Amino acid sequence: MKSTPIKSYLNLTKIINYYLEWLHENNLNNFSEEKKLLKSDLVKVVLGLIWIKKDLTDVKHFQANRYFMDAIGINKLPTIEMFEIFSAKNELKNLPILKENIGINNYENIKNIALIVLDKFNSNLNIILAPETQWGPEKKKYFEDHGYVVIPDVMTSLECSGFREIALNIAQDEKEKKVGFFYGHENKFQRVWNLVNKSLELGQLLTLPIVHQIMNDLFDRDTFHEKYLLSSFHLNILPPEGREQKFHLDSTVPDPLPSWLIKANTSFIIEDHNEDNGALMCLPGSHKFNRKPSPSDEKKYNKNLIKLIAPKGSMIIWSGHLWHKSGNNKTTKERTGLLGAFVASHLAEVAMEENHTLVVDSERSKFFSDDLKRILMFDHGVKQGALAKSNHFWAKKKNN
Ligand SMILES: [Fe+2]
Asked: What is the 249 CA–ligand 1 centroid distance (Å)?
């Protein structure tokens, strides 16, 4: 197959929808029987299997797994025998869309159609990858070796000022209404949780193409499921002259930590993090220790800590395994930071900080992009009848 294969259930759904539109556009009015066939569940399954690079016999792996069926929008999988009978026929040989690519049977013809559609689908995706100065194999290796990486020029200075103003307005509101979360020394540190529900504009940072590219790369594994989810998105405000934190890590599972990535914390730097205003301090390489730091580690390694100085507009990503703390804010000005915590999707249960289905208002979520819904897990289908109201919720069982 010359085109890049489909690697996720989500993209499988997208290409099936694209295919149905493509059928509609390729006027098949004079070929009504063929058109009916091309829209059949059987053909959708064949196309789906070809696009995810599976053999027809692999259909048996999906018998007890609805993800593939849900992705292509069918309710029942055909049997291998049905495929064999279907494949041997040649009902599409007159279709003009196949042009010179007419095969010897249905299967060959569907395969040709799959390639044509996949090529068009991929060329329409128009994915713009970040330049290597922002993300590429070198940056990934740096992250793997050191446990953190700084990505430059993600936001413009003007955007940063706008984001900072919105974030601080929300924080001020919560402070005035006495509903905010304060912690740390003298209870002066403020954290604003659940930003996705509080600002549509700030929420869009989480789905920037570069963020998606990096997270997909960091959490990559051999699966058709989505690779990562959002654990939380919040604002941190260090008060003027705020004291440094205790040494800690953010992967909250018991020691020993697994060797694979659980969390990738992403700090959107909306104002310079400099020498003096409490920039993040970390021990490079400590993410490979696979354990939490103890108080004695803090003394032992204090001299080896480095300060992650980062200019406004950049993004710092660090592994949830990395030993770190925010430094002393020696200035007389508060220092803000927007933190998006991303988690490996299969570890959501142990690493989710927010339960987004509880804390996000359903009215507001209607305005979310598909990408944002995906990382909040709001894109999972609702089964037929699942939302039907039952009159029997309180009913007691009658004893006969
Ligand atoms: Fe932390």
From this structure: 6
Measured in Å, residue 324 CA sits from the centre of ligand 1 at 6
Residues 107 and 217 in one domain: no
- By the CB criterion, residues less than 5 angstroms from ion ligand 1 are 250
CATH of the domain at 321: 2.60.120.620
On whether residue 263 sits in a domain, the answer given is yes
Q: Do the Cβ atoms of 324 and 248 come closer than 8 Å?
A: yes
Q: Which residues of the chain have pLDDT under 70?
A: 1-3, 381, 398-400
Q: Does residue 129 form part of some domain?
A: no
Q: What's the 291 CA to ligand 1 centre distance in angstroms? A: 14
Residues 6+ apart with CB under 8 A from 117: 15, 18, 19, 22, 47
Please report the pLDDT score of residue 274 as a whole number.
95
| Domain range for 165 | 137-375
First to last CA, the chain: 65
Q: For residue 368, how far is its CA from the centre of ligand 1 (angstroms)?
A: 27
User: Is 184 inside a domain boundary?
Assistant: yes
pTM for the predicted model, two decimal places? 0.87
What is the per-residue pLDDT for 366? 94
Q: What is the 251 CA–ligand 1 centroid distance (Å)?
A: 9
